[in-house]
Amino acid sequence: MTQHFYILTGASRGMGLAMAQQLLQAGHSLLCISRQTNDTLDSLAQTRGATLLQWSQDLADGVAASARLRAWLQTQTPSAWASVSLINNAGVIPRIGPMSQADASDLGHALRVGLEAPMQLTGAFLAATEHWPLPRKVLNISSGLGRKAMASQAGYCAAKAGMDHFTRCLALEEALKPMGAKVCSLAPGVIDTDMQIQLRGADASAFPDQAGFIQLKAGGQLASPADAGARVLAFLSRANFGAHPVSDIRD
Question: Fewer CB atoms inside 10 A, N or C side of the chain?
Fold first, then answer.
């Protein structure tokens, strides 16, 4: 089989949308899980002869999302595909400011979407496909901020740092299995998305690094979502994917 099956979260905008567009190739199957569906993806799938399923699912409720994914996967026939991959891309930035000013509800939401849901979805994915006789991959979209501390970004940094270490643990577990999944937590570089707009527009008095993000934009150092998505998908396709559980797109 040459057809591949992908599950992608956060596919309605930004790099997630760009990756979804690029994954919609003839013969491929794509399941998108986002708060909102995207009509342009449906049209693109029909044009290219790809199979697309979009779920409108709030990833702040990772319990429901993972239960739905596991139940659905258990009804599928793995012989239809050459490989299956889960891409945990969704994430949100909580209110930008020092922890002393954090809103508890906002912070909890960001951690549920950025860390809890990826862990829960990964658990469901691995459980449902454990006996599938084909290559399985989990790609967690991390960030350089998971590896570099930044004031007024504790919630986002913590979620991404947790994703990195969760992936390290997961790699050890899967390495013990005869056909364990290959896993990687990947920092995709700085990308020109809504997240960057949030960072540039933050209150400078509450965000000491705001000027640095303004300079990234002014200096043309931000990758387009399409270019970043293409590099991430090329990384996923590497023969040695998973050799290093925590990686950077520049590696």
Answer: C
What is the number of residues in the chain?
A: 251
Where would I find the H helices in the chain? 14-23, 39-48, 62-73, 104-111, 117-129, 154-175, 194-200, 210-218, 225-236
The reported pTM is 0.96
**CA dist., res. 12 & res. 23, Å (int):** 14
Cα separation, 24 vs 2, whole angstroms: 14
Give the model confidence (pLDDT) of 188-236 as tens digits.
Answer: 999 988 888 888 988 888 899 899 999 989 999 899 999 999 999 999 9
* pLDDT tens profile 5-17: 999 999 999 999 9
From the DSSP assignment, how many helices (H) and strands (E) are in the chain? Answer: 9, 7
